[in-house]
Task: structure prediction
Amino acid sequence: MRILADENFPADAVAALRYEGYDVVWIRTDAPGSSDTQLLARAQVENRIIVTFDKDFGELAFKFGLPADSGIILFRFRPLSPAIVAQRVVATLSSRTDWAGYLAVVEEDRIRIKPFAQLS
Result:
């Protein structure tokens, strides 16, 4: 799976995903200061799933009508420690392979998933 990690995504989680074999581009080191719309465009061009803690991406997915080959996984839980965040991120991404075409919101006790088609 090809991942585009937002600039706010924790370094430990990026390292854990890479260790598990995910192809991860991290905006913090690859293109710092990129806007959210630039991230969306890059994810579409490179067929990457965006992982983020930035809740603005839910609104942007709705506004821009993302195509089915894009995906956004929004993590909305309190990060207790970098190690726990990394574990949770890897476990979440490993739980399924069909993230493309969806906005997923990962909360403390559940994952809500909506197809982009239902966002408009």
About this structure: Residues 2 and 48 are 5 Å apart (CA to CA).
